[in-house]
């Protein structure tokens, strides 16, 4: 399971970097996510499908990240908590780099907890739990 999950987040990181460059291949989502997902943050809990609406929301999100100066998103570390043979929680520590006008770049460490399903040798995200991203960005003077 560890190998499959690490491979998933290598692909995820690459996808994120290409999306920041405006080169997102939305067909890659099929390799990263299951068709349905659940998500939780301080704003609440939601569920949905990886569909045209989700893809458009993601594209708008990456556009927003570019607009606020996001330059890089890099996986720093992954801890895995297995839940049976087919599922785990991947605790992914990220480092985000933001360009700031007339100041040095800001580097922010944060963690996202991904719910992952491994099937047929392929790991895919089916959910995630995040903290308050907007509060962190405000605290670091990004927004």
UniProtKB/TrEMBL annotation:
What SUPFAM superfamilies does the entry give?
A: NTF2-like
Gene3D superfamilies in alphabetical order: 3.10.450.50
Record's Pfam families?
Answer: SnoaL_2
Q: Which residues form the SnoaL-like domain?
A: 17-122
User: What is the name of the protein in this document?
Assistant: DUF4440 domain-containing protein
Q: Which organism is it from?
A: Paracoccus broussonetiae
């Amino acid at each position: 399971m560890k190998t499959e999950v690490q491979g998933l987040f290598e692909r995820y990181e690459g996808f994120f970097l290409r999306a920041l460059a405006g080169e997102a291949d939305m067909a890659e989502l099929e390799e990263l996510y299951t068709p349905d997902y659940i998500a939780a943050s301080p704003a609440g809990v939601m569920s949905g499908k990886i569909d045209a609406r989700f893809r458009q929301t993601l594209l708008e999100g990456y556009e927003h990240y570019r607009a606020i100066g996001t330059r890089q998103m890099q996986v720093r570390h992954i801890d895995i908590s297995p839940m049976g043979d087919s599922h785990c929680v991947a605790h992914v520590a990220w480092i985000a780099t933001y360009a700031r006008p007339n100041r040095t770049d800001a580097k922010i460490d944060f963690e996202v907890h991904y719910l992952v399903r491994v099937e047929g040798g392929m790991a895919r995200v089916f959910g995630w739990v995040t903290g308050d991203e907007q509060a962190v960005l405000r605290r670091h003077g990004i927004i």
